[in-house]
Amino acid sequence: SLAVLQALEDGLKKADADPSVKAVMICGENGKFSAGADIRGFSSPKRRGVGLAPIVSLIESSEKPVVAAIEGVALGGGLEVALGCHYRVAHVKAWMGLPEVTIGLLPGAEGTQRLPRLIGVPAALDMITTGKHIPATEALKLGLVDEIVEENTIEAAIRLANKV
């Protein structure tokens, strides 16, 4: 939603400007990282506000480490947000993917560029063209996530942020 995008932008800019902040951790709410955009908004009249691609670029360009704490799902734009982070920690039961292709859309926030850089072209092409969701264990093998945990993902992401 526009509110979430605006909150991400405001939070990142505030963290980058605050010398006491050493790292940033991005998480979802209620055990889910993000299922991506609400497609009902695609048929709405264009609203002013920040887009997802600039937010993902803002995350990626942060001089402070940004760690994603992925629980539940990171799908579509949610995965693209995680791809912009410098590190990703996922719960063992988390799933990731770019399912928008199944309704005729291509990932729109540069996921088609970031995913191949991270996991290689063959694996990325499979995910991008099929909309396939992968479990955290496969994401770790591919290099999509840096760590998987069975415990509290947010605490694990904070530990990683403090370490880096």
UniProtKB/TrEMBL annotation:
Gene3D superfamilies: 2-enoyl-CoA Hydratase, Chain A, domain 1. One of its GO terms (cellular component) is peroxisome. One of its GO terms (biological process) is fatty acid beta-oxidation. Coiled coil: none annotated. It holds the Pfam family ECH_1. Keywords: Isomerase, Lyase, Multifunctional enzyme. In the C-terminal section; belongs to the 3-hydroxyacyl-CoA dehydrogenase family. This is Peroxisomal bifunctional enzyme.
